[in-house]
Amino acid sequence: MKNFVCLMLLTFSLNLLAQVPATKIDRVIKVVNHEFEGTKQWVPGTIVVMEGETVELQLINNVPSGIHGFEINDFKVSTSIKKGEVGKVTFKADKAGIFPINCQLHPAHVGGQLVVLKK
Ligand SMILES: [Cu+2]
Question: Would the pTM of this model clear 0.85, i.e. be above it?
Answer without folding.
Answer: no
